[in-house]
Amino acid sequence: MDYLKVLRNNNKIAYKTFYMGTDKQLAPDLTMRCVFNGNEKCSIGHRNLLLDSDSMLVLNKGTQYASCAGSEIPARSFAISFDEKFVADFNRSVRLNSRQLLDVQQNNGTLPELGETLYPFNGDLKQTVLHLKHHLDDGLDNELLINEYLHHCLITYHSLYNRQIYQKAEQLHILNRSTRIEMIRRLNLAREYLYSNFDRTIHLEELAENSCLSINHLLRTFKQAFGQTPHQYLTDIRLQKARVMLKQTECPVNEIVNTIGFENPSSFIRLFKKKMNTTPMAYRQSA
């Protein structure tokens, strides 16, 4: 059942079912967007992103985007939009010390525009969102408790953002900090392109063009940031999708191979066994 919950402090939570038709939208505030069923295609300008149960999209206030189900299976999206004042107050709590927080005259400020990209949706953040959704599905109307969940979502996202942006930027062999941050932004364009197009052949030239980097620069800095080459990163994405399909569907291996973008079953089985120390069929039987 779809719903839109608007709290007294103007935080918003929306649960909506998407079909194949495109729905154009505007992010009302800083928004976390995830999917609990199927997958969702989101377009931001020229970027086409694939959102599934293992990923989360963050949108800044005012971002225009379009979304639709990524397949014939309806996509059920869950979106949290944080009011500007709620975000500003959170920002103060993480950047000021206890004495400064007691100064009611302190300038609230706002969070800077954050990287609009796909983030891993797992661990504490996913569990918090799942618990919140479960309570809302059961009719929770306690705004104090709901806002506590939303505050915890911001805490876990803040930690995730630091890991995905600042800590990875520190791994780059670049002296200037602002240049490192810009490089991570471009590398995230490459990373999200791999994630959103894992089911087809991706050429290095298009990946470099999409991230606004030369091929050599992309190869060198991608491995510094993510510890893998783009090809290794793409292979891991495909193998993860294969594990999900082996556990959750009865699709034959040949169909899974075609779905996730491997060229042939033999290379898939070899790579799967190397990664998981077991064959795909044995993995399915043990799931």
From TrEMBL:
Can you provide one Gene Ontology molecular function annotated for this UniProt record? DNA-binding transcription factor activity
User: What PROSITE patterns does the record point to?
Assistant: HTH_ARAC_FAMILY_2
Q: Which UniProt keywords apply?
A: DNA-binding, Transcription, Transcription regulation
**Residues covered by the HTH araC/xylS-type domain:** 188-286
Keyword DNA-binding carried by entry: yes
Q: Which domain of life is it from?
A: Bacteria
Pfam families in alphabetical order: HTH_18
- Output the InterPro entries linked to this UniProt entry: Homeodomain-like_sf, HTH_AraC, Tscrpt_reg_AraC-type_HTH
Is DNA-binding among this UniProt entry's keywords?
Answer: yes
- The protein, known as: AraC family transcriptional regulator
- Originating organism: Mucilaginibacter psychrotolerans
